Amino acid sequence: MSGAERGSEKPRPGNHGTASAGDVPTVRIGRHEVPVVTANTVVVGTGSAGYCAAERLVELGQDDVVMVADKVHAGSSRNAGSDKQTYYKLTLSGGDGDSVREMAQTLFSGGAMDGDNALAEAALSARGFLHLCDLGVPFPQNRFGEFIGYKTDHDPRRRATSVGPYTSRTMVEQLEKRVHRQGTAIYDECRVVDVLTRPLPDGGTAVAGLLVLRTDVVHDGRESPYLLFRCTNLVYATGGPAGMYATRVFPNGQWGASGAAYRAGVHGKNLTEWQFGLASIKPRWNVSGTYMQVLPRFVSTDADGGDEREFLTEVITDYGRLLSMVFLKGYQWPFDIRKALDGSSLVDLLVYRETVLRGRRVFLDFRRNPAREELDPSALSPEAHDYLQRAGVLFGTPIERLRRMNEPAYQFYLDKNPYVDLEKDMLEVDVCAQHNNGGLVVDEWWQSNVAGFFPVGEAGGAHGVYRPGGAALNSGQVGATRAAQYVAARRAAPPLGEAAFAEVAAPMLDAAADLVARAGQRAASGVADNTGDLLRDVQVLMSAKAGPVRSAASIREALVQVHAWLSGYEELVSADTSSRRSVNRTFLVRDVLTSAYVYLSAMADYVAHGGRSRGSVLYSDPEGGLPRVGTEPAADDELDLPAIFRFRLDGGALDGEVQETAWVGPGGAVPDFTPVVPRAGDDPAGTPAFRWRPRRPLPEDDDFFENVWREFREDGNIR
User: Fold this and answer.
1) For residue 658, what are the contacts with CB-CB under 8 A and spacing of at least 6?
2) Domain end: 408, 434, 460, which one?
């Protein structure tokens, strides 16, 4: 058996399904001896979407699959949530009418969403949800077996459900158990370095494999720090590019790996559409739902915790309106520019003013009532009064109301590290990046423009501008299922041959090794390791210039800086190669800079295309108006708000269009895509280019049973 063939053996998983790259024989590729694992499909990421894809593939008969993760127990699915994390699905209880088409229309109406994705997410929602129930996720049902629901944001029905703060964690745990029972090998502690592709005769590209850095291996020459996967398909479940922002609610350890996909030619979609919302920062957690409905007091302090002010009252002087706005933040939690004009999202802007513009810290105080010592229920809006009355909490302090309504929400912070006792301590919060509704482009089977590359979960850009709360969890299960169906039915071919694969992989290995070597030489010459500083600097820059409040000028300023970092990265980065963490960050920072460069370019293109404020973003506009309190516009000096809060609403003007992004490498070009910031042909940073196209409509397929049945017998309608 040749060395290449030995390296192609599929290793048996060890404890808890993990496999060791050290057990894979090495293969000579170029000047490197490197382990190579061969499989039909590699699933990258061990969140709920990744595990679902791996489990479905085996279930559908494609068991030649392995998984890769940077850290199995990190990531948003396992470590993020809220007071009551929502899963969105078709109505499965009560007498209210609902249909697949109606749910699809709800998703589609969010703007800039492709209709085939909306229809698939609606059609498979019940299948994905009930599958999770069968695996052991304890979604609540009544004594007759109906899965009860409630309304979430942007939801006309009662399609939402929950198992509590850790809905997605429970999903991950049950899917993980199933994958382990199936025996799928999982390679942990692997940082994505590059996606390997090969050209196709028609001018397109296809997946050839994946290059990762083994973060458990020291660069001492005794063992290869790299691992190659030779495969036909990549299911990319890496999450969104969470590492771009400093002010984020994404858990520690969730970074994303979108930059590698863009460099490989995978297109982006709706990249400007981030979702921001109020969250605690130590620990990171959404303060939605009950945390807001119990009416905490908002206070700000100076950097040292002094000079305490109840700052909301500076702008919202009407006591009843103040209480009602805070209450509404419970289920109008994401920052929504439409609600910033005269609604609850003004709270987010006032928090942003304190933290970003004034450099102060903001806290929720559950120990005292807002504005007055005693709560005056008569001042509440009818909606808030009725809700709190039915909950039996029209009394006492916010913490008393919280413990009466939702004791687990109080206990949650006691169980974290660092812990916060809301009966004694204030909770520090900020307006944080929470989810990217855009991402890597997907078709109706969640395949990208690169054949064999399937972005699922938050990595995939399946959403539009708005989406119902909990739709992301459903989308991850649906996208993973659709990708697995297509792979099993249409992409079972073996990977690229060994010799051809070596030709593709050798230059990528050389480039990775050279990057580390040069960074190490720089450190050895006395230049301090700067990987941590660079990571922090780009995150701080993105939060300051491209967060929930941004402008054409701030985007341009950030774009110039990020381009400078990225184009000179090989001459800039310095890394201690004896430190596994430092080498890991060498590739992580490159990935984050790549993503930031692409996303900033997309923001610049959006503004150039006539884009205005929409979704979860305020684009500053000197010709726009300021938010107001009440139904009548206020004089400019009445609210004392900064000029950067002037904006004009998009009003749905671009809802029918989708922005697509292509990474154009040095000297290259992509037909139909135009760079928003022209660069030199040999620019080492590459050039993002863009096109705007009509969104794909909701399909109007023939649903006559005999016709569909005949086609289903032919190919399962997977085409």
Assistant:
1) 112, 114, 269, 270, 692, 693, 694, 695
2) 434
Bridge partners of residue 198, in order along the sequence: 206
Residue 377 CA neighbour count, 13 Å, CB half: 17
362, 351 in Cβ contact below 8 A?
Answer: yes
- Between CA 642 and CA 693 the distance in angstroms is 35
- In degrees, rounded to 5, the angle at the alpha carbon of residue 131 between the alpha carbons of residues 126 and 137 is 110
Same domain, 199 and 258: yes
Q: Rounded to whole angstroms, how far apart are CA atoms 278 and 548?
A: 11
The continuous run of DSSP H or E covering 657 comes out as strand 657-664
How far apart CA 193 and CA 206 sit, in angstroms, is 18
Residue 547: closest CA among 342, 322, 276, 165: 276
Alpha carbon distances (Å) from 35 to 20, 223, 363, 507, 609: 11, 10, 50, 16, 47
Task: Tell me if 585 sits within 8 A of 532, measured CB to CB.
Answer: yes
Q: DSSP characters for 417-473?
A: SS---TTT--EEEEEEEEEES-EE---TTS--SSBTEEE-GGGB----S---TTHHH
Asked which of 384, 400, 434 is the last residue of a domain, the reply is: 434
Decide: 352 and 548 in contact? Cβ < 8 Å: yes
Whether residues 233 and 307 share a domain: the answer is no
Which helix (H) or strand (E) segment holds residue 162: the answer is none
Q: Is 471 found in the same domain as 417?
A: no
Token output for 635: 């004089």
Are the CB atoms for 453 and 207 separated by under 8 Å? yes
> What is the span of the domain harbouring residue 582?
6-273+437-523+533-548+563-599
In terms of C-beta density within 10 A (0-12 exposed, 13-18 middle, 19 or more buried), how is residue 396 classed?
Answer: middle
Q: Are residues 138 and 223 in the same domain?
A: yes
pLDDT of 686 strictly over 90: no
Please count the structural domains in the chain: 2
Phi, psi of 266 (to 5 degrees): -75, 135
Mean pLDDT of 464-469: 95
pTM: 0.95
Say how far apart CA 147 and CA 594 lie, in whole Å: 43
Task: Tell me whether residue 592 is in a domain.
Answer: yes
What CATH number has the domain bearing residue 174? 3.50.50.60
Question: What confidence tens digit (pLDDT) does each residue in 643-655 have?
Answer: 999 999 999 999 9
Whether 217 and 280 map to the same domain: the answer is no
The rounded distance, in Å, linking the Cα atoms of 603 and 607 is: 6
- CA dist., res. 330 & res. 633, Å (int): 25
Helix 167-182 / helix 471-490 crossing angle, nearest 10 deg? 20
Q: How far is CA 169 from CA 81, 396, 484, 535, 659, in A?
A: 8, 33, 22, 28, 32
pLDDT score recorded for residue 680:
60
- Within a domain: 135: yes
Using one digit for the tens of pLDDT, what is the confidence trace for 280-326? Answer: 999 999 999 999 999 999 999 999 999 999 999 999 999 999 999 99
pLDDT confidence of residue 342: 86
Is the pLDDT confidence value at 681 over 70?
A: no
The end-to-end CA distance of the chain, in Å, is 38
The partner residues of 210 in beta bridges, in order of sequence, read 195, 229
